[in-house]
Amino acid sequence: MQSILDLKLDRIMDAVKEVQETDELRAIIERILNPQFDEYKDDFDSSVIACYAFDPVSYVLQVDFQRGSRYHYFGLTHDVVERFMNAESKGSFFSRFIKGQYLSTKVAG
Predict the structure, then answer these.
(1) Could you say which residues of the chain have pLDDT below 70?
(2) Contacts 24+ apart (CB under 8 A), 60-64
(3) How far is CA 46 from CA 40, 57, 64, 83, 91, in A?
(4) What's the sign of the alpha-carbon dihedral 103, 75, 27, 36?
(5) 100 in helix, strand or coil?
(6) Helix (H), strand (E) at residue 7
(7) Using DSSP, how many helices (H) and how many strands (E) does the chain show?
(8) CA 50: distance to chain centroid?
(9) Per-residue confidence (pLDDT) for residue 11, from 0 to 100
(10) Using CA atoms, how far apart are residues 10 and 4, in angstroms rounded to an integer?
(11) What pLDDT score does 4 carry?
């Protein structure tokens, strides 16, 4: 049988764990809301896409379009991004496998 002190200690430890999980969740949300793009790729020819960047921590793909708009696409896997990066036609791959398949938001343009 647990003593009252043990029960209180268990509750405190549960509360500490909940706070730690909340802090981790806050950090993840902050990174998703403010992705960090280290390298922009623009060494390809495309009539649709001007450049792009990927944040591997938050899984956010940023795409700048030739017409001047910029979008963030959320939740892409490394595999999809790698296939996009290696695609002969970035615009075709984007239209077929990314656009409308992932949550997105317009951030500029």
Answers:
(1) 1-16, 19, 109
(2) 60/32, 60/35, 61/98, 61/102, 62/35, 62/37, 62/107, 63/94, 63/98
(3) 15, 27, 11, 16, 7
(4) negative
(5) coil
(6) helix 4-33
(7) 3, 4
(8) 20
(9) 67
(10) 10
(11) 60
Q: Give φ, ψ of 3 to 5 degrees.
A: -80, 165
In sequence order, the 6+-apart residues with CB closer than 8 A to the CB of 2 are: 10
Q: CA-to-CA distance for 74 and 30, rounded, in angstroms?
A: 13
Residue 13 to residue 84: CA distance in whole angstroms: 45
For residue 22, what are its two tokens? 């909340």
DSSP state of 41: B
Place of tokens 């949550």: 103
What are the phi and psi torsion angles at 71 (to 5°)? -125, 150
**pTM of the shown model:** 0.74
